[in-house]
Design a protein that fits this description.
The protein has 238 residues and is α/β, with parallel strands linked by helices. It has helices at 15-19, 28-44, 61-66, 71-95, 117-125, 143-153, 187-193, 200-208, 223-228; strands at residues 8-13, 48-53, 100-104, 113-114, 129-133, 158-163, 168-169, 181-182, 184-185, 213-217, 235-237. Helix content is 40%, strand content 18%.
Length: 238
């Protein structure tokens, strides 16, 4: 473990990441590849890994609310979508003999444990991957905020956010070929510049609790492993 900078890690995955190129639902190739990456990390080192998943590949509560749906109801539907993603990821991991637990912020004992902080930490200490679903259990909070909250609660050493780009840029690199990538940036600069890596509630929560954030792409497959070793991968926000 000496070569690794971080011991306990929370990985934030977007629902869109699980959809792959198809744009909707769960792409088996993507989720199986992701499971392989996680297994490689668990096989390589004694890393305690928790994961928070979004649900945007199935349902986006905020988008539905702009079309007239009640915001609270829309957000609850979105939380259920995250549970579907969590169960799919659990199944892919356990086919590879990676022991997992899914914990949800909304009680649904037939399919997952209810989130209990001390139990989640105990699972991590026993080497299990813990997948957090259903956000915070409350409407009006994003899964980014849920990831920041859970990372703080389990005393994670770092929060890693996987995106489709390889870090934080001063503008959208898809629209601006001259966009500059930051190797590091402060949370205060993220807020003052209005950089949309996470919502402001999540950014403030990380900043107030001195939780470092690494924003990176999971392609190529060894990116997360290299980041855990302390290599300058993606962008670190502090």
């Amino acid at each position: 473990m000496g070569e690794f900078k971080y011991k306990r890690v929370l990985l934030k995955l977007s629902g869109e990441h699980l959809a792959g190129d198809q744009g909707y639902g769960i792409d088996p190739t993507v989720i199986n590849g992701l499971a392989q990456q996680i297994k490689a990390i668990k096989d390589y080192a004694d890393i305690e890994l928790a994961i928070t998943v979004g649900g945007g590949n199935i349902f986006r509560g905020m988008a539905a609310s702009t079309e007239g749906m009640d915001r609270s109801q829309a957000d609850y539907i979105g939380m259920l979508a995250t549970v579907m993603n969590a169960l799919a990821l659990q199944e892919a991991l356990e086919r590879l003999e990676v022991f997992t637990r899914v914990q949800t912020a909304i009680a649904m004992q037939a399919v997952a444990e209810v989130y209990i902080r001390r139990r989640a930490i105990r699972h991590l200490e026993k080497g299990r991957v813990v997948i957090f679903a259903a956000g915070t259990g409350n409407p009006y909070f994003t899964t980014d905020t849920a990831a920041a909250l859970r990372a703080c609660e389990i005393n994670a050493d770092v929060l890693i956010k996987a995106t489709k780009v390889d870090g934080v840029y001063d503008s959208d690199p898809k629209l601006n070929p001259d966009a500059k990538r930051f190797e590091s940036i402060s949370y205060l600069d993220v807020l003052t510049r209005g950089l949309s890596i996470m919502d402001s509630t999540a950014v403030s929560l990380c900043m107030d609790n001195s939780l470092p954030l690494i924003v990176l792409s999971l392609s190529p497959e060894d990116m997360m492993l290299r980041a855990l070793k302390g290599e300058a991968i993606g962008t670190i926000v502090f």
